[in-house]
From TrEMBL, chains A, B:
Residues 21-217 form the Metallo-beta-lactamase domain. Its cofactor is Zn(2+); Ca(2+). Binds 2 Zn(2+) ions per subunit. It is not clear if Zn(2+) or Mg(2+) is physiologically important. Binds 1 Ca(2+) cation per subunit. Seen in 1 crystal structure, it is not clear if it is physiologically important. This is Ribonuclease J.
Amino acid sequence: MSKKKTENVSVFALGGVGEIGKNMYVVELDDDIFVIDAGLMFPGDEMLGIDIVIPDITYLKENKDRVRAIFITHGHEDHIGGLSYVLRDLKHVPVYGTKLTLGLIELKLKEAGLLKEVDLRLIDAKTKLTIADHFITFFRVNHSIPDCVGVCIQTSQGAIVHTGDFKFDYTPVDGKQSDFNKLAAIGQRGVLCLLSDSTNAERPGQTGSESLVGAELNDVIYQAEGRVIVASFASNVHRLQQVFAAAEANDRKVAVVGRSMVNIVEVAQKLNYLRFKPKTLVELSQVNRLPDNKVVILTTGSQGEPMAALTRMARNAHKQVNIRLNDTVVIAATPIPGNEKSVSKTIDLLFRSGANVIYNQRKVHVSGHGSAEELKLMLNLVKPKYFLPIHGEYRMQMAHSKLAEQVGVKSNNIFIVEKGDVVEFTGRKARMSRKVPAGNVLIDGIGVGDVGNIVLRDRRLLSQDGVVLCVVTLNRKQKKLISGPELISRGFVYMRESEEMISEANRIVTKQIEKSLQAGSDWTELKSNIRERLSVYLYEQTKRRPMILPIIMEI
Amino acid sequence: MSKKKTENVSVFALGGVGEIGKNMYVVELDDDIFVIDAGLMFPGDEMLGIDIVIPDITYLKENKDRVRAIFITHGHEDHIGGLSYVLRDLKHVPVYGTKLTLGLIELKLKEAGLLKEVDLRLIDAKTKLTIADHFITFFRVNHSIPDCVGVCIQTSQGAIVHTGDFKFDYTPVDGKQSDFNKLAAIGQRGVLCLLSDSTNAERPGQTGSESLVGAELNDVIYQAEGRVIVASFASNVHRLQQVFAAAEANDRKVAVVGRSMVNIVEVAQKLNYLRFKPKTLVELSQVNRLPDNKVVILTTGSQGEPMAALTRMARNAHKQVNIRLNDTVVIAATPIPGNEKSVSKTIDLLFRSGANVIYNQRKVHVSGHGSAEELKLMLNLVKPKYFLPIHGEYRMQMAHSKLAEQVGVKSNNIFIVEKGDVVEFTGRKARMSRKVPAGNVLIDGIGVGDVGNIVLRDRRLLSQDGVVLCVVTLNRKQKKLISGPELISRGFVYMRESEEMISEANRIVTKQIEKSLQAGSDWTELKSNIRERLSVYLYEQTKRRPMILPIIMEI
């Protein structure tokens, strides 16, 4: 560890605070920038047509020569999903991750055609790095995917500790407990600031071990008379492991369905994070040749995503698997906020197809994030001087800050930051100083950031009451309407059933155009007259406000 | 009670099964039709631009002369909200409801300008009716609004019993317990078929009394240092009563905000279902003159509805009330499935404004629907031969049917119906016989049923990737392009940032048009050529599929 004068230390989030998703945190030590995670977020309902959302990395691009490393805490989408966009601008920056994490990152980068251009570096929980004179270590934490680490960056003012996503699982599926001793030692040496996962700060008590789910799955499979279909997040590798184990314990084969599930099972098996007998895994096409009570199908779709395998099975629209009487379907996940309705719909469809559906009534899911008692334990171990609750919506950060106060952190030393708020540590003091650019970059198709508020506003308008075109040809010199107005609508009303209204609208617009022409209106005026006249009339008639587009051709 | 030969008895739902909302059930006795409830449903996310959804009443319209009565079990939107549409076609049919229920119905009918044309008839839980020789009685049940009843229609085969929405509250806020004895007597006399509320069939145990909330509200208000703002469903009159009582107990005044809240408080107070001292209620404008610790504000917006009062306060966009430090905000409701995200957003905004927000961590809400044990008690009291679980999504109906089996109803005697499935009772047997028309009627603005699948599909397309217009003037005789193509887009991309792509698209379309003109294509062909060519090119460039509308003017 280098001894030198007090560094200037800054910490901020480019994503992951005030929201669940697109985690990205930055630690700046004098001239050196370290990034932790680069995730994506799935769009809210109001972001019509948007595929994914990533953090705004303007600050990193503007300071790209100072970015020394990107540390990835684990392989979930909200921590790695933004990498293939971020790295386009930061190809020279090495990305550090554990074996499984890098395996999953490679999948993404391959798809994006970036794999060969970037610098991936393998670490494990024991790795010690010195980068640009700064000393960085890691510690193991438990979560719903194996091979998770937290990050500890040493500074002259004490350590900056980032927990990653974590819970304290005393009986983890892979037998690898959290690094309690290391955390205690880090705390002992002195921690300037802790950044800790707030997801379950509102939940009292302890989250419970993933192993509880194993026993439950085992029991469900034991009791099932027919096939068992288990839906889970593909990235919840511990859950997948338990499904394989329960299948083997009950002498069943496992088939895997859904692109991400197939990919992750393949990577996790290859890297030895998923263990099962070679004959346990069978092709989906073989399943129909096995007796029903020898089959487990592991599938995507636990969130009722319209195109996911389980949803298609439930709709009877899957090519290879349809739900039938005597199937047992296990939804081994809880709905992410916003997905409740689509999950309910899927469950209803499954019941209608005759399946026995097991969802929130049995303990077939536990969270991967620690609850209040675990968060307090982390604070007790690490004993930070300053505290930033991260990874959560504002109210979760609030709840986490209250826990920290209970544990003894001074309330003035807790910063509930928003994206871009920089917390600066200058020797004795810490304060929220400046703000760096931060926000949502929307990705629609292959366009990065070319959809903004105006485009979204138009989509919203169009989605509510559709569009009405008013097409007119005219000769302005002669002040004469040559043809039209022709009204064309989409998403507004059934034209056929509204003929009367449309022909009246036509009459009104014709009159308006003739009037405007006589008055010598210019095009802009003419267009706005048409728009206004039509808008008022259609609203009177229907109480709807379609987008109105006047199209004027002059000859 | 008339003695006569075995009647033909049919029962079906026009709404309320396979869904939460728009309840409407029909009991048909030979030639006489009785309707129970006429509710609305709020649209799902996929119903873009739709305001509300009501049941398809084609069957009732086709048989309007046989409809003898509409019984309304209670005054919630999902039971009365469709009335002002349904009664347009059934003005001659008397509507029966209790005092508060009719009070709320009158509000709606007045708005719709229908109040003077319809026949509202007051009942209470003791009313006995003979309509067209059929004997009808009611029984009191507890729910989150006062004055709720269930309906018992006598037939020669035994009674048809409809519970309405219910729970068994042993300590109801208004002191009026459920009619246990009457239910037991009805069961004793013989019940052909029970239709019972399935909302909480998936929940084990007992729901708990509304009075629990009162104690909690009292404590929250007692401890608050500043203003207390309570958000609740306006229609949850018991909850409102408890807010008034807790305010009085703590020597505070109550101001009411939000149109529906103001309306319902007025009606409920006038009809004596809400009791408080005259001076307790103050105008909102007076609130700022009172010390903060003398104020309770009762508001709408517990579901994070964008335009509701609480949401506007949270956004700092309410004219009279803004949230400030030291305010305590109580969200005295749970999110209806689908509203989780908007409720979370509102809570976050409130925290950001400095309020202390009390939501699901304290018992400031209990459900108005009975859980598993209460549903079993109802089955035990009524002892029906046949059973229809109603009022719930399919999986709730499933869960309820399992409870009924546990209680001893034969599984063959349980019918999990979908909308329009008619269950016919013909002496010894019961069977699902025919199907009557049933479905969703969508209401957008003042249009009833003029938005259907095509319009919705267009709105969905428009909402995803917007619209691109391709405007062309041509002279087909001379096979000549006169002007254009001009490309105009809305909700697709920022035109300014995509100039290159647009001019290339222009070139491609021009070539296509010239080719088609040379080949002598007709308009339909020309349009479809433009659409296809443009669609392929824009998809290649953006991976988006905007709606493409070719507009061709011929001169």
